[in-house]
Amino acid sequence: MVGAVLCGLVPLEWALAGPKLTVVELFSSQGCSSCQAADANLLELTRRDDVLALNFHVDYWDFAGWKDPYADSAYTRRQQAYAERFGQPYLVSPQTVINGKLHTPGTDARRLNSLVAAARNEKGSCINVRLTRAGSRNVRVRIDDESCCGVAEVLLAHYDAEHATRVTDGENSGRTLKTFNVVRQLAAVAVWQGGSLDLTISLQDLAGAGEDAVAVILQEQAQGRIIGAAVLDLRIGPSD
Fold this sequence. Notes:
Layout: H1 12-17, E1 22-28, H2 35-46, E2 51-57, H3 73-86, E3 95-98, E4 102-104, H4 109-121, E5 129-133, E6 138-145, E7 152-166, E8 176-192, E9 195-202, E10 213-220, E11 226-233
Parallel strand pairs: 1-2
Antiparallel strand pairs: 1-3, 3-4, 5-6, 6-9, 7-8, 7-10, 10-11
């Protein structure tokens, strides 16, 4: 058995078994002073083996004096899509989205944990997604489930376990900020409509996108409910 969970990265055997993961997405920025409480609460979630916690840095705070080195307009667009689904008139940060369905700022740990528990206990489909190494340069995504919830996207997220950044301008000027499970790339790699899927993806195609871990997320079309997920620690060497 591989060692204990570190920063939300599950051992290889668990990835093979396809545990039920609750996916928590935090939309934050190093330029936002109120985001730090949500970052701290996300850190606690990364220590759980039943949660996939991901930190998406948005770029709309960059105008305030500090350009976040991990921000990406793609993550702003992802948050915008959620805001439209939730009927929000504008973007707010921090914002935490649970399983693509529930949302909260994420600064109140009790409220956040309550929504994570509610999402985990919700009845409905949970598709078994498996993510494994396929040699030293590839990962393999497998789904074998006859359940069909309509059309779903297969998303691949590369992320780094931790970053520490000295901020020299903006609301957090003079502070060294630690952020966890920082997403460096999110890509749609396939469409699933029930049945079997067996997909091998080259890590070289995602070069520079994140060194520590990769996660696969199965999300209903139009950025709806998340119905399956798996994660693989890339710091553990390939078994074949």
